[in-house]
TrEMBL record:
Directly interacts with DKC1 alone, but not in the context of the core trimer composed of DKC1, NOP10 and NHP2, nor in the presence of NAF1. Does not interact with NAF1. Belongs to the SHQ1 family. The keyword Nucleus applies. GO terms for biological process: box H/ACA snoRNP assembly. The keyword Nucleus applies. Keywords: Cytoplasm, Nucleus, Ribonucleoprotein. Pfam families: SHQ1, SHQ1-like_CS. It is found in: Cytoplasm, Cytosol; Nucleus, Nucleoplasm. One of its GO terms (molecular function) is unfolded protein binding. This is Protein SHQ1 homolog. Residues 1-89 form the CS domain.
Length: 311
């Protein structure tokens, strides 16, 4: 089965799903929708979506087919009129089966009722005179000699295997055996060691190149201005989600992404969000200093930017 290209939009009362199936047989198709589930089948295409809001079958649903474009357009009523469905542009999440997850909890609670009942019976058998010892804190290095890093602190041992390949990008030696606090101290020391007063003064007084870079308008500046102008001042707050739109190529890439879920604590979640900002800032820096000209060394600037921002 093929996953067709699709697009979702909404108004206060309806959810509209446009599905592109140029090679389907119009006479042989099936549509199922209930609650947050939506399924579409037209050989050789199959589409299953888990929607961010509930839809209902009440007789007001509509469908049409554009034979020239090969697009089915299905309009489904919302169960709660006026509800705004979030994340309609997150195609990978919509394609994921409901309640699917790629990571399982490390600790699970099973047999709650049995444990509670047995707990009452075992109270008399518990040895309250068990020998105790003073608490002795064990250092993190003794528990795990390797430190973690990367997305959600889920990686370790990567630089140990690829130290030679990343020596020009990562200034810190042996990050697998260096804590986050030590990495930060070493990063500050490396920045201080690389500071050149003469270079700084030259950039301060001979700033033609810097001024040229600052005057450059990257592609997102013009795009943002056009979007805001099209929305209008009165709808600026209500339609902020409409600022994000993807091309057909970008939608295709989103459909190819694997939808994964991770068990991250609050500290790891905060680090992940900061890492995304690091990537955006590094990309913006690279785009500005090269004035939009892509080159083979661009990835080095991005990696170095992330390397410094995340420590």
């Amino acid at each position: 089965m093929l996953t067709p290209a699709f697009d979702l939009s909404q108004d206060p009362d309806f959810l509209t799903i446009a599905i592109r199936v140029p090679y389907a047989r119009v006479s042989e198709f099936d549509v199922y929708f209930k609650g947050v589930d939506f399924k579409f089948y037209a050989k050789p295409y199959f589409l299953r979506l888990t929607l961010p809001g509930r839809i209902v079958e009440n007789g007001s649903e509509q469908g049409s087919y554009d034979a020239d474009k090969g697009i089915f357009t299905i309009q489904l009523p919302k169960e709660t009129p006026g509800q705004h469905f979030e994340g309609l542009n997150m195609l990978t999440a919509l394609l994921a089966p409901r309640k699917s997850r790629t990571a399982k909890p490390l600790v699970e609670e099973i047999g709650t009722s049995e444990v509670s009942e047995e707990g009452v019976e075992d109270d008399d058998e518990f040895d309250w005179e068990i020998e105790q010892f003073p608490y002795n804190e064990v250092s993190e290095s003794a528990l795990n000699p390797q430190y973690h890093y990367g997305f959600g602190d889920l990686r370790s041992g990567v630089f140990q295997r690829l130290q030679d390949e990343f020596s020009d990008v990562v200034d810190i030696k042996d990050p697998d055996f260096t804590s986050a606090a030590e990495r930060r101290q070493k990063r500050l020391a490396a920045e201080l060691a690389k500071f050149d007063p003469d270079h700084y003064l030259a950039d301060l007084f001979e700033d033609e190149a810097v001024e040229q870079v600052l005057k450059y308008n990257p592609w997102w500046t013009e795009m943002y201005s056009k979007m805001m102008a099209s929305l209008g001042k009165s709808q600026e707050q209500e339609n902020h989600a409409a600022l994000v739109s993807f091309s057909e190529e970008e939608k295709y890439q989103l459909r190819k992404f694997v939808n994964k879920s991770y068990l991250l604590d609050k500290r790891a979640q905060r680090q992940v969000y900061y890492s995304l900002i690091d990537i955006l800032l590094a990309y913006c820096y690279e785009t500005r200093v090269t004035e939009g000209e892509k080159n083979v060394s661009a990835f080095v600037s991005v990696l170095v930017g992330i390397d410094y921002c995340t420590k």
